[in-house]
Amino acid sequence: MKTSRNWKFDYIKGIACLIVVCLHCPLYGPIGDGIIYACRFSVPLFFMITGYYCESKSNEWILRKTKELIIKTLIAEAFYGVWKMFLALALDKKSLSEFILNTAIVKKPLKLLFFGSMFNGVLWYLYAAIWAYLLIILLRKAKLIYKDAVCYILIIVTVCILVIGRFVAQNLWDEAFMTEWACLFCNALIFGLPMLLTGMLFSRHEEAIKASLSLKKNVLILVAGLAVMGEEFFLSRQYMDFHFSTYIISSAVFLFAFTYRKDSTLLKKQLTFVGQRLSLYIYLDHIFVNSLLFTIERCTDIADKLIVAIVHPFAVIALSVFIAWAIDRIKYRAAKAKTV
Known about the structure:
Layout: H1 7-24, H2 30-38, H3 42-54, H4 59-91, H5 96-101, H6 104-107, H7 109-115, H8 124-141, H9 148-172, H10 175-181, H11 188-204, H12 206-212, H13 215-236, H14 244-259, H15 268-299, H16 306-339
Helix pairs in contact: 1-3, 1-14, 1-15, 3-11, 3-14, 4-8, 8-11, 9-11, 13-14, 15-16
């Protein structure tokens, strides 16, 4: 049973959640393009870290975390529903009935239930995490997840479907159909489960990995992942949300928590705080912040200015972190008040 928290996981989570913001609100120019292509490791990394901690936790703990995540998801959905309704009624001049009839809960309830989301497509990650938690419990009850061989087979099969299936789909389906059904490759079974299982295997064999893997070897794995990424791009000439290289790079970044021996690094205090306390809230609020800033830019006719395009992503990052910090402070004070 793991009783102590590894600050390095919080550190890389802090970096990863800021990269997620940059993926959805890209930096201007080649740097932004490079981040979008090369830094897809963030969401796989979140799942791997979750799997790492799940390995030593009971089913009751996982169910408790699932319930907490469901509550936070519903709150986020309600918030985004109100925001989307405001935009539709106030700016797009739609009627209330028109807005309601076009929501996912009315048009595609089953797709919403299994793939998410009602009002914010980015929240698919939360739906995938919820169902992936439940899949882990089912696999435990079936006595399958305790066998390494079964875990390896599940990881290989699902990652191959995730990469090869997505590649085939992008070449066979038209853009509109692909956009509509991209959820087939962003869900608990195909995306969440293999990443969770990877984290669980890393946890299960942590001591052996630490004994055999050095920081230099870890860096070589990362470099190998980047080399594979270059080869994939050279051969396919197309971008996907997940490549084989993404899995390698995500695993390499995760393993830095095992191989980095020092007890301090650049911006340790700040990034570990972001990773431990703010990462989920940043994930939840950054799309609202992005939409809010775009709405202000649109209403003030400055959206097309170059300086706005450059400043916009930095403003989204800063405001998202501030709102997440404010939420965390409110929760902290509320919890403190209960203990008094």
